[in-house]
Specification:
alpha+beta, 44% helix, four-stranded mixed beta sheet, globular, four-stranded antiparallel beta sheet
Length: 579
């Protein structure tokens, strides 16, 4: 409603103005309109003989009863419309319907005129006619309202979220699926499901809101790890991927405001390079003399379902959303045609698993680290976490020892433990080389984080610097993998092999070509080129390929090595100021 009323507010209207709107019901708060009503009564308006008051310029009654004579029903409908469609100014013009008041003399004309309202102010390129329904609806603006509410009130519990799982949101989630992704136990791919997309989405939406939706078990597959072992993955069914994607977007609107700044894993707008930049800046600018490099053993397979649901209930009060998440946790896995129950963990590969893992570690690790740093640390301390891999830096050794002991006790309470082989406390920092040299212990130790080996050293001018090099074992494993693939592609045309190798090198450089690591990237390019040359020479026994022609192939198909990322300080402080 726009305009002011010109009469006395009736008693039943004052009661209905205190009813919560649809937006306040979603956010869990009730707007207080008593002050507005009292201020309106103190303005000294002229009393009216009518009980229900018309709004100026609209000709509608604020609390007029409906056709059945039920005033509460009409008030609820109007408040619901105001909340759902109140995204901005009304775009339509308003024709005045209130009659003009007569002046004291018939010849004097009307004493008071009522003006209409023209079109809403806007840029000249915008149109007053609406576009398609999907672009003008307020469905996608509701997440922004939830996000703002979660940002304002860190302790708010959201008890009405399930209605956000609309057909539009499911369609958006379907659009984000990769066309060539692996299929689950249902055997459906994205192209097959999209042949009758609208019908399938409406059927899925109906089953969700009727409570007839049933989660399917994940299909168990294994992928090789860098250390030679295999990592178990759980491939969800296609409809489970769609619903999980929609729920993930919904929960991200709440939890992105709660997560700590040192948490970088699987978050919107944050990448592994943001975590690497934060670590490099912290090691260089803070008083860090000791580094704890730690990893949680089998984290995704050790998450306790009971604790996870308790953590979710801190912010999620909608039982239907919690029940939906519980269905995915209890769906189990299919391996070799046999169903297996999952009493612990979340399947790696599921769309919602990274978010659930971040929620679990937020309450188990992040909040505890934050209060430990404020209460118990004597010196400076830095923390960077990416999923279950984290690095902490300390000024004093006794802080690091006490933190490690307390961390082990904290994780044990929630059925987690540190990986013994991947958890190390080392001396690292600006003065590590000098102190270790006095003790005759050699060079400072190094640690690995997100594919890079971190080395403390100095420039030729004597300045302290943290060098980042590609992990040797990962680089060797990648070269072995490429060599095996070259054997399979050996007899393909050179342009096909060159296009494939060029894409591989561009992807490799996009992650590893950071400042200070260019020599390692050049060595990798040379090894790839040498293996490609040997593979092409073995295509025939007649004549070997000379290096002049090989150089032409390399310049045509393979990208030259160069830095793809700015310096850590530049990107870190730019991102910090932008936030």
């Amino acid at each position: 409603m726009t305009g002011e009323s010109t009469g006395e507010v009736s008693s039943h209207e004052m009661v209905q103005t205190r009813l919560p709107t649809l937006l306040s019901e979603v956010e869990g708060n009730t707007a207080d309109h008593d002050k507005a009503s009292d201020s309106g009564n103190r303005r000294g308006r002229r009393p009216s003989a009518r009980a229900d008051v018309s709004c100026a310029g609209t000709g509608r009654s604020r609390s007029s009863p409906d056709e059945d004579g039920n005033p509460e029903r009409a008030a609820k409908v109007q408040s619901r419309d105001a909340a759902m469609y109140g995204c901005g100014k009304s775009e339509k013009a308003v024709v005045p319907e209130k009659p003009s008041n007569d002046g004291p003399l018939l010849t004097a004309g009307p004493e008071e005129m009522v003006e209409g309202r023209a079109f809403a102010k806007r840029n000249p390129v915008q149109r007053n006619t609406p576009r398609t329904l999907s672009r003008t609806s307020c469905v996608f603006h509701e997440l922004e309202r939830v996000r703002q509410r979660a940002k304002r009130d860190k302790g708010a519990m959201f008890s009405a979220l399930f209605h956000h799982l609309t057909v539009d949101r499911l369609r958006e989630s379907f659009g984000r699926l990769k066309p060539g992704a692996a299929v689950g136990v249902d055997g459906l791919c994205k192209q097959e499901y999209g042949r009758d997309l609208e019908g399938n989405l409406h059927d899925l939406h109906g089953r969700l809101h009727r409570g007839a939706y049933r989660a399917k078990p994940s299909r168990r597959v294994y992928i090789p790890k860098a250390d030679g072992r295999e990592r178990p993955l759980g491939i969800a069914a296609l409809e489970d991927k769609i619903v999980q994607g929609a729920v993930t977007r919904l929960l991200e609107a709440i939890y992105e405001n709660d997560f700590m700044g040192f948490s970088y894993g699987f978050r919107t707008g944050k990448s592994p390079h943001d975590a690497l930049d934060a670590l490099a800046v912290g090691l260089k600018s803070k008083k860090v003399n000791w580094v704890l490099d730690a990893d949680i053993r089998g984290f995704f397979d050790a998450i306790d379902h009971g604790w996870l649901m308790k953590f979710l209930r801190h912010r999620i009060g909608d039982r239907r959303v919690l029940r939906l998440i519980g269905k995915w946790l209890d769906a189990g896995v299919m391996e070799g045609g046999n169903w297996q129950a999952t009493e612990r963990g979340t399947p790696q590969g599921a769309t919602i698993s990274p978010l659930l893992a971040n929620v679990y570690l937020h309450y188990v690790f992040d909040l505890w680290v934050q209060q430990w740093r404020r209460r118990h640390a004597r010196g400076e301390m830095i923390v960077v976490r990416y999923a279950d891999d984290f690095v902490t830096g300390f000024e004093f050794e006794d802080d690091a020892v006490r933190f490690l002991a307390g961390l082990k006790e904290r994780l044990a309470r929630f059925a987690l433990e540190l990986h013994g082989e991947k958890t190390r406390l080392i001396e690292f920092g600006r003065y590590a080389a000098e102190r270790r040299g006095k003790r005759g212990e050699g060079k400072p130790e190094t640690f690995a984080f997100l594919g890079f080996t971190h080395i403390c050293g100095g420039t030729k001018h004597g300045r302290y610097r943290v060098f980042r090099r590609t992990m040797a074992k990962r680089q060797i494993a990648k070269l072995i993998e490429l060599g095996e693939e070259m054997k399979i592609r050996r007899h393909e045309p050179i342009k096909v092999q060159g296009a494939w190798l060029g894409a591989v090198l561009r992807g490799y450089d996009g992650y590893h070509a950071v400042p200070g690591n260019l020599r390692s990237v050049k060595n990798f390019h040379w090894e790839v080129l040498r293996r490609w040359y040997r593979s092409l020479c073995r295509r025939s026994h007649k004549k070997r390929l000379d290096w002049n022609k090989m150089s032409l192939h390399a310049s045509r198909w393979l990208p030259p090595p160069r830095n793809h990322h700015p310096h850590p300080e530049q990107r870190f402080f730019d991102a910090k100021h932008s936030r």
